[in-house]
Amino acid sequence: MAKKRYTINPPPKEKGLFRVVYSIDVSASNVKQAAENAFQMMQSKDSFAPVLVVMDSKGKQATIDLADTMEFNKITTGFVCQKFRKNESGKFACIHQEFVAGDDVQFETLKGDPVEAPEHDYQPFNMTLISRDEIVDRLNELLTSIDVGGEQSRQFAHEIGILNIFLTSI
Description:
By secondary structure, the chain is α+β, with helices and mostly antiparallel strands. The chain has three domains: about 20-70, no CATH class; about 70-130, no CATH class; about 130-170, no CATH class. It has five helices and five strands. The strands form two sheets. The protein has a three-stranded antiparallel sheet. A two-stranded antiparallel sheet has the order 4-5.
């Protein structure tokens, strides 16, 4: 049986017009579901920047990895400063920590290649320290908010079970 080839023709010969090809493999039960899944993946904020093939009106193609142009890593060298205080049992516990940035900052693509510093908004180095008791309290609040009985509790039965097991084990 001969395989069918999928061909893509160049766009019409208009100045500044390109044809961009985005291909993705998607698991689905049928073609409509596959199209819907692909569309949802393209819109997701959590999706990775794609690799695209761009074709001009003469048929010349270029492959562009948008991860190289739309995402980057910023590596800041610095120090973590922690404050400790004796607790009720006489042990020192960390009560505060902060990151003190140094002058050494490097930028790289997601593949690790160095790049010049792209224009970007400053992102603070937040290092929140919460206690074990605060974590337990927050998880108990979450459990209380979803375990209200009736249909909602049935919908979240799996999650409620996980939280109950975790909270009874600590």
